[in-house]
Amino acid sequence: MKKTVAILLCALLSTLCAFSLGEGPLSDLFEVLPGEPGVETPPRGDLGSAEGIVLEINGESVRLAYDASPQYSSIQGGLVQASYYAYSADGKTLYELYITFPETARAGMIITPEYALMTSEESSVVLIVSRDGIEKYFFSSLLDGRIYPEGSGFTIGIDSVSVNDGSVSYAGTLSASLIALDLSSGAVADRLEIPATSFGFTVSGQLSAPLPDMPQPTQMPEDLKRV
Predict the structure, then answer these.
(1) Predicted TM-score (pTM) of this structure
(2) CA of 152: how far to CAs of 148, 176, 182, 183, in Å?
(3) What is the CA angle 29-143-168, rounded to 5?
(4) 174-199: pLDDT as tens digits
(5) Which of 12-21, 69-78, 110-119 has the lowest mean pLDDT?
């Protein structure tokens, strides 16, 4: 299955959304956008990552391992992308979760589509389910100043950010309401709820600028009197 880093993934979602608004069948764009034509990404192996996330998918509890490979998880173009994946028990289904948010994210921040619209910073949550050569994209993103698909949403709560030598570590909580679209008509084909679940990962790379400090509350006159 062809893969992209953060920027191409966002481009894929934007184009997918545009096609669903009447510019052509959605199935057309998957021939070219997800990766270089004719270049397939090798199947993922078992990384045994301690940084994982547990999701309820179709009534089954699935533990997805974090993939630190640069082609899947990265800091690029002002965005952080984290990728998690797991195979089904029979090895025939591949689940891939992508969490994308601004590299300006810091501890205490809660990222939602509404926040992304207000700050004009790209954010998205995508779950790709692949079986027998067929891929289903569940996602929530932004398009033309609105949440897309309509009725989707996500909350990415950042509990901690640690800047290391050559990498950055994040921990937080994710919840989402994801929607899969029919690739021919653009109509809603399926929905998936991700209840609040913890995540953590370390991504290679450096932030382009130091993290800004969270604003401190203004001291009230009665507080000053106690000093």
Answers:
(1) 0.77
(2) 7, 8, 15, 17
(3) 90
(4) 999 999 988 777 789 999 999 999 99
(5) 12-21
Distances 36 to 33, 70, 71 between C-alpha atoms, Å: 8, 16, 13
Side chain identity, residue 222: E
Q: What is the 3-state secondary structure (H, E, C) of the chain?
A: CCCCCHHHHHHHHHHHHHHHHHHCCHHHHHHCCCCCCCCCCCCCCCCCCCCEEEEEECCEEEEEEEECCCCCCEEECCEEEEEEEEECCCCCEEEEEEEEEECCCCCCCEECHHHHHHHCCCCEEEEEEEECCEEEEEEEEEECCEEECCCCEEEEEEEEEEECCCEEEEEEEEEEEEEEECCCCCCEEEEEEEEEEEEEEEEECCCCCCCCCCCCCCCCHHHHHHC
